[in-house]
Write a structure and sequence with these properties.
Elements lengths: L2 H30 L12 H8 L3 H10 L17 H15 L4 H13 L4 H41 L32
Length: about 190
């Protein structure tokens, strides 16, 4: 047997031994956790908070309000949260970002107990989203008016020949006389 082949065999034996040691350690770790491999699917409160972008205190507060169910503790273990809890938490955050209050969100969540079909929750969300949309459209309309007002003021200030004569003599040449609140004042005093 060549030196090269003997080195390869030794290296392969070492690799196999290392894998066995690592597997034993994994088995011991699983046994330490009670042999529950399914625990890998659960999250501690800190992990859940980090994934959802909130604090652990926020999660406990949501549990107190009934927005999120508090998981049962097993023996002396920490709370373990399932992936569905992360989904609920993200949904709560989404609804908050749409402007719903925590009490409105709770009302929607509570509807699940009286309506397993989800139809009442769907209709409630549809109503709230429609209200929020109308409110947003009204804010947009006011913002659009404000932007138009600023635009003509900027244009007018860039083109005015004599700022001291505005309002006054400059109004005769100004294309914004019809919408300017000061153009029709009898005062010739500059602002």
């Amino acid at each position: 047997m060549s030196k090269r082949n003997s080195h390869t065999i030794v290296r392969d034996k070492i690799t196999i031994q290392n894998e066995r040691v690592n597997n034993r350690r994994s088995d011991q770790h699983a046994a330490h956790r009670g042999g529950r491999e399914k625990d890998d699917k659960f999250l501690r409160i800190g992990e859940l908070a980090e994934m959802a972008g909130v604090t652990g205190r926020t999660i406990r507060y949501y549990e107190e309000l009934g927005l999120l169910k508090a998981p049962e503790r097993r023996d002396t273990e920490h709370r373990r949260y399932a992936q569905k809890d992360l989904l609920y938490l993200r949904r709560i955050q989404q609804l908050k970002s749409y402007g719903l209050t925590l009490s409105e969100i709770k009302e929607i969540i509570d509807l699940a107990q009286v309506d397993p079909s989800g139809e009442k929750r769907r209709l409630k969300l549809l109503t709230r989203y429609s209200e929020k949309w109308r409110e947003a459209m009204e804010r947009k309309r006011r913002l659009d008016e404000y932007i138009k007002e600023l635009e003509w003021h900027i244009d007018q200030l860039e083109k005015v020949g004599n700022f001291q004569a505005c309002p006054g003599e400059e109004c005769k040449k100004c294309k914004y006389t019809g919408i300017c609140k000061f153009a029709n004042l009898n005062s010739k005093t500059a602002l």
